[in-house]
Q: What sequence folds into this?
């Protein structure tokens, strides 16, 4: 019987080593891989619990001289298992809190990204409106420039006519003065 309990103790040692390994992997992994280690650790905890129950049953069958020694060991194993379970829960809670913080940060980042996208869309809309305003202003300026060109040509034509008219008036005035002078000359000559 003692050899069977020693075999159980060896199994217990192997299982707790596997549990410790899986617990350490839980902290260092993410996603599906992390879930795999959690499931493996839970399965190992169930196996260890069953193993300790088997050990307790075997210890009850031992002679009283060995019974006390093995009961103390089983009690120690149970305490150790409880501590491992608490450690596992603590790590899972820490990881859950870390995930919650990361989730909150991601949600905040997502909200900021949405706000930025909305602001960007508004800026684009404003820029589009300003572009249209500038385009309309440019079209008006081109229209005004065209109209100014036409006005300039009309004014130039008018200035040419004014100059021509003044020149014509001067020529007519000179001719009139010459005619008047000649008329006076002929009048004076007839009188003399």
A:
């Amino acid at each position: 019987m003692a050899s069977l309990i020693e075999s159980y103790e060896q199994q217990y040692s192997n299982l707790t080593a596997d549990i410790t390994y899986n617990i350490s992997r839980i902290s260092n992994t993410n996603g599906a891989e992390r879930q795999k280690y959690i499931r493996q650790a839970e399965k190992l905890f169930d196996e260890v619990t069953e193993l300790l129950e088997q050990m307790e049953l075997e210890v009850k069958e031992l002679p009283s001289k060995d019974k006390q020694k093995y009961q103390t060991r089983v009690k120690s194993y149970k305490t150790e298992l409880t501590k491992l379970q608490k450690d596992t829960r603590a790590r899972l809670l820490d990881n859950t809190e870390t995930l919650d913080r990361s989730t909150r940060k991601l949600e905040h980042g997502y909200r900021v990204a949405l706000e930025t996208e909305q602001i960007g869309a508004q800026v684009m809309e404003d820029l589009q409106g300003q572009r249209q305003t500038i385009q309309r202003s440019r079209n008006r300026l081109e229209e005004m420039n065209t109209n100014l060109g036409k006005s300039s040509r009309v004014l130039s034509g008018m200035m040419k006519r004014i100059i021509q008219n003044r020149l014509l008036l001067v020529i007519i005035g000179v001719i009139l003065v010459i005619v008047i002078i000649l008329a006076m000359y002929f009048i004076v000559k007839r009188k003399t």
